[in-house]
Design goal:
By secondary structure, the protein is mainly alpha-helical. Helices cover about 70% and strands about 0% of the residues. It is built from 22 helices and no strands. The longest helix has 26 residues, at about 395-420. The chain is globular and about 65 Å long.
Length: about 425
């Protein structure tokens, strides 16, 4: 039995498991990588090497810094200051746009799940005190979408782009993405999102969300500490220094993130035990396992065969790169609404790289297309953690389809048109 045939069988089983979550995502990623190793497609070193990579170290460091920012109350300090403005409190539409902007900015640098978790109680308390002027059901969905969109504006904002970054780094002759490279398309999509929720999206949710307001259900996101000794300011300063380090390139991304994490622990912004307790181990395992699995797909030749089939389907040697880009965006957007967006990137990014190389196109453009599209997942409550977390607002599946789904469609078309223009395809 050829290695390619075995790899295809493993691929099918991994896709089924990722989509159905019969087996937890981290375990699926690990088993996929180990299966490739057991079949002799990759070596044991290749199966586990990603766990010690600069990208995984960056993720670990950023998670610790983000949790420190969350637990010291730094975000609360900013949020409470903004929420004291009467114009924000008296207009639900203005209130929604302001809070979405804040969450977008915050989720670009810390976990989008943490960003939405820290703002939901604040919005709930303000809604309760507004005597009906502001309702949670008209805010939560926009907040969740803002956290997802903000998360793909930087390299550290969410895990899908980190998987893609590691795959780029492991491919000879290719460069990785710069820290703000995704912001070229991310910022236009942010503006599109604010326009949507400031106009048709806001009116649509007022029409669709006919269910009564629900009581706020506490979301377990860790015990928030008192900002004694101005530790919230210290945590905010460390976050700013990390971003400066990422942009300057003075050290590798992983080194900067780990230095920031150490600074948070040494200054008491988060204790070592809490750093362990609040670490998103699932993300680290999915990231490391997925990269090993993707390596097996590449070495077996499966990715190359699928890439050739895709190129031929789009016009063989005369394939239009913009059309191929649009096809990749569509596939990624559909998959990420029914399975993990990190898993979607792990499956599609190697394909995108191979297709680009076959066509003589800069692979980073197709990889960025996959990353962006995998984050455009607003149509179902299972697409991403933030969309699942807002179920406490009382939303029905049809509410996600009508309000989130419409913006999902608009954003996907927008990305298909704009990415080739912005990145010079």
């Amino acid at each position: 039995m050829s290695q390619m045939f075995i790899a295809i069988i493993i691929l099918i089983l991994v896709i089924i498991s990722f989509a159905t979550q019969i087996i937890p995502l981290p375990l699926t990623a690990i088993l996929g990588s180990l299966a490739m190793m057991a079949a002799g497609i990759i070596t044991p070193d290749e199966a586990i090497s990603a766990f010690g990579s600069d990208t995984v170290m960056m993720v670990a460091g950023v998670i610790i810094v983000g949790n420190a920012v969350f637990e010291t109350g730094f975000a609360d300090r900013i949020g409470n200051a903004v929420f004291k403005i009467k114009a924000v409190q008296n207009s639900e539409r203005v209130f929604l746009l302001v809070i979405m902007t804040m969450i977008t900015i915050l989720s670009a640098f810390i976990s989008n799940s943490a960003a939405i978790a820290m703002f939901m109680p604040l919005v709930s308390s303000i809604a309760k005190a507004s005597n009906g002027k502001i309702q949670k059901k008209n805010c939560y969905m926009g907040m969740a979408i803002a956290s997802i969109v903000g998360g793909f504006c930087t390299l550290s904002g969410s895990s899908p782009q980190l998987v893609a970054q590691e795959l780029l780094n492991q491919t000879d002759g290719l460069r990785g993405m710069t820290y703000f490279e995704l912001a070229k398309i991310g910022i236009p999509i942010v503006l599109l999102m604010l326009l949507y929720f400031g106009t048709i999206g806001y009116q649509l949710q007022k029409k669709c969300f006919t269910f009564p307001e629900t009581n706020y259900v506490e979301i377990p996101a860790g015990k928030q500490a008192k900002a004694a000794g101005h530790k919230d300011i210290i945590a905010g300063a460390i976050l700013l220094l990390c971003v400066t380090g990422f942009v300057s390139g003075i050290f590798s991304f992983g080194t900067v993130a780990l230095l920031g994490a150490c600074a948070c622990i040494l200054t008491g912004c988060i204790c070592l035990n809490r750093a362990y307790e609040t670490m998103d181990w699932s993300t680290l395992i999915v990231l490391g396992g997925s990269i090993g699995f993707a390596k097996g797909m590449e070495k077996s030749g499966t990715v190359g065969v699928i890439a050739n089939l895709l190129v031929e389907a789009c016009g063989n040697g005369q394939a239009n790169p913009a059309i191929v880009c649009a096809v990749l965006i569509f596939i990624a957007a559909v998959l990420s609404n029914v399975m993990s967006n990190t898993a979607t990137v792990a499956l599609l990014a190697p394909l995108a790289i191979d297709v680009a190389l076959n066509m003589g196109v800069d692979p980073i453009i197709f990889v960025i297309s996959i990353v962006v599209a995998s984050n455009l997942a607003f149509t179902t409550p299972i697409s991403t953690p933030p969309m699942t977390m807002i179920l406490v607002g009382g939303y029905r599946f049809s509410d996600y389809v009508k309000v989130g789904g419409l913006f999902n469609l608009i954003a996907v078309i927008f990305a298909m048109v704009l990415i080739p223009i912005i990145y010079g395809l």
